[in-house]
Amino acid sequence: MEKKIAILVDGSFYQKRIHALKDFKTPKESVDFFIQYCKRHVRAERFNSFSLYRIFYYDCPPSDKEVYHPLLKTAIKLKNTEQYKWMTEFIKELTTRRKVALRLGRLSDNAVAYNLRPDVTKKLLNGKLNIEDIKERDFYLSIAQKGVDMKLGVDVSSLAYKKQVDKIVLIAGDSDFVPAAKLARREGIDFILDPLWNPINADLHEHIDGLKSCINKNGEKGL
Questions:
Q1: Under 8 Å CB-to-CB from 16, ≥6 apart: which residues?
Q2: DSSP class of residue 62?
């Protein structure tokens, strides 16, 4: 009997991590790679008969707010930025793909700000960088997500209790998934974590059934 595998993806983590490994020119090109990457996990089961149940993608729509930039000393209209346009097209493209379920949360109305990158802040405090040397690229847009982790947890519960799949692959990079992983494993589901080569805490290994990234550290095929 053919077994089913579900791929669950923390979209915010995926975007940050994959764009650090690869360069995509268009949203469509990025979605094409994303679908193929997820399917690598299905093909990785060389000695088992697995088929893809569904790809679940968890993220938030891009923010269209105006946010004050402390270096430029002006409000940035996020809706007019290339990042907003790119992410809007990426999400739209995802909705057209077969076996992809889009799970969108919402962005916090209050926790939106341009912050200095941690490594830049460290250099400032250590005296290795002067305040006059700070550039626009040294800032990042910080936006808190709401509802994403809850949607992921609900889907894992549904998949587990209804016995809809035999294996779950979670593409994520932090420990927020641990309660969901415990539930799935108690229900007999094989739970695999793909951190896209991002280091994980050693104690997380006890909450998963395996660790597998289907891409190498140079952003190329890892199988």
A1: none
A2: P
The two structure tokens encoding residue 15: 């975007």
201 three-state secondary structure: coil
Tokens (6 digits) for 28: 């469509």
Q: CB atoms < 10 A from the CB of 50, how many?
A: 18
Note the helical H segments in 126-171.
Answer: 148-161
| E strand or H helix at 28 | helix 27-43
Dist CA 110 CA 204 (whole Å): 32
Specify the 3-state DSSP secondary structure of 216.
coil
Distance CA 192, CA 207 (A): 10
pTM for this predicted structure? 0.88
How many Å apart are CA 215 and CA 219, to the nearest integer? 6
Phi-psi category of residue 11: left, alpha or beta, with phi > 0 → left and psi -120 to 50 → alpha? alpha
Q: Give the span between the Cα atoms of 24 and 27, in whole angstroms.
A: 7
Tens digits of per-residue pLDDT, 40-68?
999 876 666 889 999 999 999 999 999 99
Q: Average pLDDT over the chain, rounded to whole? A: 90
